[in-house]
């Protein structure tokens, strides 16, 4: 074993192989398992055929897998350098989508780039994680105590949040805000500052409600009382609850979920795919999926803790947080616990942009893992010493 | 302070030195806090899911079942209507329709345009198609045209490649093989309107029809049947995924009429071009064997839609083709009313059959002179002669003495001026006027009104069906009700037996006196209707003529001696009426004939009634004048187009 490691280190041409070797393949297997669950469910959502959902999704996952491994090879130093440009690109795309984007189902916006549908808001989340991590990495922990150093990253967060809200995509805006907040917290923001900022939140919320779109307000109202509009805004939630409930403990059986197979379930291949799983596989299947998701999240968090550089820690935490918030919003939504918003279940739901960006995020996470022992940045001199 | 201490603790656990990587300890602690929150949040979701799936699972499972099962009703086939020998009078035929499945064509309007070059569509069709397109889901077909001929279908099939989404489908349409012959009796059907649907949800089913006239209307509910249902698994937009359960409906009942289609045909041809109506009734049980009203109309036009021009033509026609004159035409009965007046007189006890009245040709009452139809009078007449000669003065006098109330009571007993129990809509009651009725309308009842009522003029109005009923009751002494429905799904009702009908309660000797008077009208010398004598061996007929003025004849005209109603314009000529029954000694059939503006009952109505009665008697299988044909014996396999017997001319 030692010899083998030495061999890999000795020969520069083996360095890539060595890096590949150090990828957490257990984590990759976990990702593939969840994607497999997605494939199987999409097969059912397509009425027991690989088309139109399952097969394209598998192809996307294959592309995403290659992307993930590639990104995992990138050294953090390089990532820090490209974080700024990537962030600027994401803001340009967000502005572009506001002006020339296509709108689907009321609120999702995408751009057509080279025949591909690109959802800039998905990409913006990854870019924001990188940009924030790079910023906090650069200013080092020592400067976290000075609120002035926190103003630029606050704008880094607010800019995409405002742009996504304008789309308008409430769910994604909340997730972006959540990612930003969690990274501020993890980077070591002082508690007194946090307290100072959290206190006025209720008043801000009141103000925000007054400026929400009618349909966004309708979502909140429906959320509070879904039966008030059973065929309108509340339809999705009620049908989803019926599907969940009819699944029972062991489910109605694969390919036999009546709600999903009979199209009562709205957007069963995207936002409500978890409902389909719960209907066909029952509580047992649904909890298994939740368990898999939790393993991925906690695994990512452990990778963050294990990293010896600030940048890697923050990237890994941001990505894990993104994945967690994704799952949280989507699952709460299908269970009728929060208002409906166009947030898919990562890895499982049908959709190209979301899949590729999730895989991009996992690539960054694995890069953190691969380069977990590399110590760089913050203070070059410290490293020297 | 607490935080600081913890940091120190945790840093001890970590193998990395704090000085070299400041903030790592804070990060680790805060990341662990996040992990706890994440695990807690997903755990909470798993708990919520447990509530939804396991605890409330049953409730949601029930909701899911009702979500996916859609119950649809199947339109039952409408019952047939057949005549007394099983000949179909109203039937269901296949109706070939061209449908367009909007979701199967990319260019709906283009497909409709190309279709219209093959099968022309008029503006009404186009408007209806556009309306259905707007309201229906894309997988529910829209009807382009129905009632396609074979040739039209062939043309559509030939052009099928250029007509994506167009398919040919078969529904049913109501057909009336006898057309105008029975239009008034059978009526017709039409698609239900919103009010019908509000009353019965069954009618919302496609292809359901509602009877709009005749037996189709009166027996509508029996003809409709019971809807079957099919439970289907549907998806959220209503598309059928699979069939779960099917309950076949009950087809509508087959209604067997009392009508004899062959006789009806004969009566119609006897009437010819005259505007008239005739009723042939079995006077023992009230079965209506034939009921003709001319002119008639083609009922099949209603199923496919009546054009505006046709409708105007019908409604403006003074001969009223749409009205069944036998039940909805009211006429003064004229002299046919006299037997009823006589019965009132006899029953009152004020008259006996042998009491005589002197007829000088007129009767003066209170300064008004009432003329007899004979200017020279009939001399001294008793009841028998008064009926035979149809002496007006005798009945003027009788009416004057008996009074209108008694006459009305007896007339009502005979069925005149009453609502009869016939299975037809839009019947009229007619009227036997009484002083009470007149006063209710704020008019004064004059003695003269009673006197003219004695000869069936004035306000008296009856329908031809009432006349036939009256004749039947007079002939049998039983209170028969005319009816058209004889059997339901082949089962005879109790009405078919004569004993079902109660006695009228009129003394037989009085009835016999009236019958003999009516016998004299036809068969004795100087009777008013010698033309009504039957040419059949061993069978005689009794009858009564009637001529009902539609306009008062002025005294000047009458006294000028040149009055001849035949010279009047058609619409001013009197109606010609005749009622009769036969055989005289064992009454079996009653016939009433009203020819609008036919001038005199004796010349116009009596021969017609004789011919109708002859046809009726010759077709009677019981009379054995002709052997009953096969088709009569076996009603199940009707020989529709060959009548049971032919009249030897």
Keywords:
heterodimer; A: 385 residues; 3-stranded antiparallel β-sheet; 3% strand; B: 649 residues; alpha+beta; Penicillin-binding protein 2a (Domain 2); Beta-lactamase; 3 domains; 7-stranded mixed β-sheet; 5-stranded antiparallel β-sheet; 25 helices; transferase (chain A); FtsW/RodA (chain A); glycosyltransferase (chain A)
List low-pLDDT spans of chain A: 379-385
- By DSSP (H or I, 4+ residues per run), the number of helices of chain A equals 17
Q: What coarse outline of chain A follows from CA principal-axis ratios?
A: globular
What percent of residues of chain B adopt helix (DSSP H or I)?
25-40%
Describe the structure.
- Chain A: It is found in: Cell inner membrane; Membrane.
- Chain A: This is Peptidoglycan glycosyltransferase MrdB.
- Chain A: Belongs to the SEDS family. MrdB/RodA subfamily.
- Chain A: Pathway: Cell wall biogenesis; peptidoglycan biosynthesis.
- The complex is a heterodimer of chains A (385) and B (649).
- Chain A has helices at residues 2-10, 15-22, 25-45, 54-73, 76-100, 120-139, 147-166, 170-186, 191-198, 201-210, 214-224, 235-247, 258-261, 273-306, 310-334, 352-370, 380-384, and strands at 102-104, 108-113, 116-118.
- Chain A has 385 residues and is mainly alpha-helical.
- Chain A has one domain (23-373).
- In chain A, helix 6 packs parallel to helix 16 (352-370).
- Chain A is globular.
- Chain B is built from 25 helices and 21 strands.
- In chain B, the strands form six sheets. In chain B, strands 2, 3, 4, 5, 10, 17 and 18 form a seven-stranded mixed beta sheet that branches. A five-stranded antiparallel beta sheet of chain B has the order 12-11-21-20-19.
- In chain B, helix 11 runs antiparallel to helix 24, helix 15 (338-348) crosses helix 17 (392-402) and helix 15 packs antiparallel against helix 22.
- At the A-B interface, helix 8, helix 12, helix 13, helix 14 and helix 15 of A face helix 2 and helix 3 of B.
């Amino acid at each position: 074993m030692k010899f083998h490691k030495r061999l890999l280190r000795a020969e520069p041409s083996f360095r890539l192989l060595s890096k590949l070797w150090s990828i957490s393949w257990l984590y990759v297997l976990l990702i593939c398992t969840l994607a497999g669950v997605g494939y199987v469910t999409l097969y059912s959502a397509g009425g027991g055929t690989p088309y139109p959902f399952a097969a394209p999704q598998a192809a996307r996952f294959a592309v995403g897998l290659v992307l993930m491994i590639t990104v995992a090879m990138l050294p953090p130093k390089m990532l820090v350098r490209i974080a700024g440009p990537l962030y600027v690109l994401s803001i340009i795309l967000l502005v572009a989508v506001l002006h020339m984007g296509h709108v689907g189902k009321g609120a999702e916006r995408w751009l057509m780039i080279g025949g591909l549908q690109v959802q800039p808001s998905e990409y913006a989340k990854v870019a924001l994680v990188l940009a924030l991590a790079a910023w906090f990495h650069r200013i080092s922990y020592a400067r976290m105590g000075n609120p002035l150093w926190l103003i630029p990253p606050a704008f880094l967060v607010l800019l995409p949040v405002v742009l996504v809200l304008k789309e308008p995509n409430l769910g994604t805006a909340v997730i972006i805000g959540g990612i930003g907040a969690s990274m501020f917290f993890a980077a070591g923001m002082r508690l007194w500052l946090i307290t100072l900022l959290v206190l006025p939140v209720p008043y801000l919320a009141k103000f925000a409600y007054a400026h929400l779109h009618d349909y966004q307000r309708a979502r909140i109202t429906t959320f509070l009382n879904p039966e008030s509009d059973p065929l309108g805004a509340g339809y999705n939630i009620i049908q989803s609850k019926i599907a969940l409930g009819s699944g029972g403990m062991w489910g109605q059986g694969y390919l036999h979920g009546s709600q999903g197979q009979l199209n009562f379930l709205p957007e069963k291949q995207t936002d409500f795919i978890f409902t389909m799983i719960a209907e066909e596989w029952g509580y047992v299947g649904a909890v298994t999926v939740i368990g898999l998701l939790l393993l991925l999240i906690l695994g990512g968090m452990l990778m963050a803790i294990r990293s010896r550089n600030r940048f890697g820690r923050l990237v890994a935490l941001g990505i894990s947080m993104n994945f967690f918030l994704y799952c949280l919003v989507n699952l709460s939504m299908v269970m009728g616990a929060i208002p409906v918003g166009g947030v898919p279940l990562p890895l499982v739901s049908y959709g190209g942009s979301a899949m590729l960006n999730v895989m991009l995020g996992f690539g960054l996470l694995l890069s953190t893992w691969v380069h977990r022992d590399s110590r760089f940045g913050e203070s070059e001199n410290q490293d020297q010493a | 302070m607490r935080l600081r201490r913890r940091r120190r603790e945790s840093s001890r656990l970590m193998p990395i030195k704090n000085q070299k990587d400041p903030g790592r300890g804070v990060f680790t602690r805060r990341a662990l806090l996040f992990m706890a929150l994440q695990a807690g949040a997903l755990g909470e979701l798993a708990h919520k899911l447990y509530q939804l799936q396991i605890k409330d699972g049953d409730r949601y499972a029930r909701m899911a079942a009702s979500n996916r099962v859609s119950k649809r009703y199947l339109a039952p086939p409408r019952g047939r209507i057949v005549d007394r020998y099983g000949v179909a009078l109203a039937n269901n035929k296949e109706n070939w329709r061209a449908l367009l499945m909007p979701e199967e064509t990319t260019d709906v309007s283009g497909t409709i345009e190309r279709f219209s070059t093959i099968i022309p569509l008029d503006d009404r069709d186009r408007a209806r198609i556009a309306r259905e397109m707007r309201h229906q889901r894309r997988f529910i077909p829209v009807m382009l045209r129905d009632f396609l001929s074979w040739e039209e279908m062939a043309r559509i099939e030939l052009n099928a490649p250029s007509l994506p989404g167009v398919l040919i489908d078969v529904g049913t349409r109501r057909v009336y093989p006898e057309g105008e012959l029975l239009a008034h009796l059978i009526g017709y059907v039409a698609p239900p309107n919103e009010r019908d649907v509000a009353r019965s949800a069954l009618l919302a089913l496609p292809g359901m029809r509602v009877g709009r006239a005749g037996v189709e209307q009166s027996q509508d509910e029996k003809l409709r049947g019971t809807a079957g249902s099919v439970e289907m698994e549907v998806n959220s937009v209503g598309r059928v995924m699979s069939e779960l359960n099917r309950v076949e409906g009950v087809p509508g009942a087959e209604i067997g009429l009392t009508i004899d289609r062959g006789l009806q045909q004969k009566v119609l041809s006897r009437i010819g071009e005259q505007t008239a109506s005739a009723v042939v009734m079995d006077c023992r049980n009230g079965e209506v064997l034939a009921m003709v009203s001319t002119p008639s109309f083609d009922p099949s036009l209603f199923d496919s839609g009546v054009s505006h021009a046709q409708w105007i033509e019908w409604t403006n026609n003074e001969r009223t083709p749409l009205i069944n004159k036998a039940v909805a035409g009211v006429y003064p009965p004229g002299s046919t009313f006299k037997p009823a007046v006589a019965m009132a007189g006899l029953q009152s006890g004020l008259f006996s059959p042998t009491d005589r009245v002197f007829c000088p040709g007129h009767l003066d009452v209170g300064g008004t002179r009432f003329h007899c139809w004979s200017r020279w009078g009939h001399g001294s007449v008793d009841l028998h002669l008064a009926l035979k000669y149809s002496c007006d003065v005798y009945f003027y006098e009788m009416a004057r003495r008996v009074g209108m109330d008694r006459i009305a009571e007896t007339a009502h007993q005979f069925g005149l001026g009453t609502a009869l129990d016939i299975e037809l809509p839009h019947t009229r009651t007619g009227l036997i006027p009484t002083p009470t009725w007149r006063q209710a309308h704020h008019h004064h009842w004059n003695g003269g009104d009673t006197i003219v009522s004695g000869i069936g003029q004035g306000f008296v109005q009856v329908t031809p069906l009432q006349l036939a009923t009256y004749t039947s009751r007079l002939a049998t002494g039983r209170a028969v009700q005319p009816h058209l429905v004889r059997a339901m799904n082949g089962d005879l009702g109790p009405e078919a037996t004569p004993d079902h009908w109660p006695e009228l309660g009129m003394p037989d000797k009085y009835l016999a006196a009236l019958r003999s008077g009516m016998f004299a009208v036809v068969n004795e010398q100087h009777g008013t209707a010698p033309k009504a004598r039957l040419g059949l061996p061993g069978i005689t007929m009794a009858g009564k003529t009637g001529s009902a003025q539609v306009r008062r004849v002025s005294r000047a005209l009458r006294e000028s001696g040149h009055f001849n109603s035949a010279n009047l314009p058609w619409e001013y000529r009197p109606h010609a009426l005749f009622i009769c029954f036969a055989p005289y000694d064992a009454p079996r059939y009653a016939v009433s004939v009203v020819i609008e503006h036919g001038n005199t009952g004796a010349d116009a109505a009596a021969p017609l009634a004789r011919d109708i009665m002859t046809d009726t008697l010759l077709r009677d299988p019981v009379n054995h004048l002709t052997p009953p044909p096969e088709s009569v014996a076996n009603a199940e396999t009707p020989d529709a187009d060959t009548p049971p017997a032919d009249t030897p001319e």
